[in-house]
Amino acid sequence: MVASVAASAFFPAPSSSSVASCKASRSINETPESLSVRGIVAKPASSSGALQVKAHAQAPPKVNGTKVSLKVESQINEEAPSAPRTFYNQLPDWSFLFAAVTTIFLAAEKQFTLVDWKPKRPDMLADAFGLGKMMQDGMVFRQNFSIRSYEIGADRTASIETLMNHLQETALNHVRSAGLMGAGFGSTPEMTKRNLIWVVTKMQVLVEQYPSWEDVVQVDTWVAPSGKNGMRRDWHVRDYQTGQTVLRATSVWVMINKQTRRLSKIPDEVRAEIGSYFMDHDPIIDDDGRKLSKLEDDTADYVRTGLNPRWGDLDVNQHVNNVKYIGWILESAPISILESHELAGITMEYRRECGKDSVLQSLTSISGDSGDHGFDCQHLLRLESGAEILRARTEWRSKRAHVP
């Protein structure tokens, strides 16, 4: 259909009168008297379709007042019968290009009729390209994520870094959907005016199960006050299809000056912006009051040195993204643990930021049995100078059987 329309647009079929005219011009014997200097004109003579050749009515030219008869000799060479003239052998020299384009159009038209636009799994496209939506009168923000093939690891499940990135993405989209995104990344307009930003100081994560490739997870997040000058943000991640809990997380944030890096109270103008979004809700995870001990070279079981941030590890503030810290603290965990156990929970206390020129060390100590064939580990991430970046504790459990 597409090809036929394109062909008729570029190469209209010759009309019956023009074909007849062409044939007549070949079959009539032309004499000098029947021709003028302008040639011949063919037109139908009767309803029977017979053609007549008529010379243009023009006065004979004169030279010095004397009439001159201009004669043109014409011969019709009898040639051998040629192949019937068809549409395709009348195409111009670039007909090969047109034929190729026609073939492409035909193939595309056929493919459109064969494509099945219905997804095989309805949950595959659940908010796959959206930025989420507000729930519960604008107090809760919800967003869905499809687990991609490049987000799974050797266990065929999503990595902890993937899930943590989902938490970070929903937090930022929550601020944007509320209309509070200023010039800074995650800062409100009033915070931007005062050169203030949020930084996380503590985070707890409990993982119930790890999703697999093509699974869709549903992330809910909300905020609440934390003390006089802090904010708490919670997340609840569920399997979109079953509703089962995948992960729960809670975090505490404080405000600092972007230039001086010093703590700041929440200005009244900022509190007026964000106060209406605070929920009176208990943390989704009870606070783990156990102290995170500081590791030293002589108390650590495993040490990994020479860790350098890459350009892709930096955020818009030119500091290492918080999610990257998790990958670094696991760098010093032995492979035997990673092969036989999975991360069930993590508690992190952020002490300092690090930039692109930092060189870090990761220390890990296995602290003891935590039951159900699991154990706890203590972690420290520090600069080569000894300054602490992060203290953490991880909980591990034996890997569950996964269907290949």
Describe this structure in words.
- With 404 residues, the chain is of the alpha+beta class.
- It is 21% helix and 30% strand.
- The chain is built from 8 helices and 16 strands.
- Strands 5, 6, 7, 8, 9, 10, 11, 12, 13, 14, 15 and 16 form a 12-stranded antiparallel sheet that branches. A two-stranded antiparallel ribbon has the order 1-2.
- A hairpin with a 3-residue loop joins strand 8 (216-226) and strand 9 (230-239).
- Helix 1 (2-10) runs antiparallel to helix 3 and helix 4 (160-177) runs antiparallel to helix 7.
- The model is unreliable at 1-57, 68-78 and 113-128 (pLDDT under 50).
Tell the overall outline. globular
The CA-CA distance between the termini, in Å, is: 47 Å
Order of helices and strands: HHEEEEHEEHHEEEEEHEHHEEEE
Total number of β-strand segments? 16
Please name the defining characteristics of this protein.
single chain; 404 residues; alpha+beta; twelve-stranded antiparallel sheet; two-stranded antiparallel sheet; 30% strand; globular; disordered N terminus
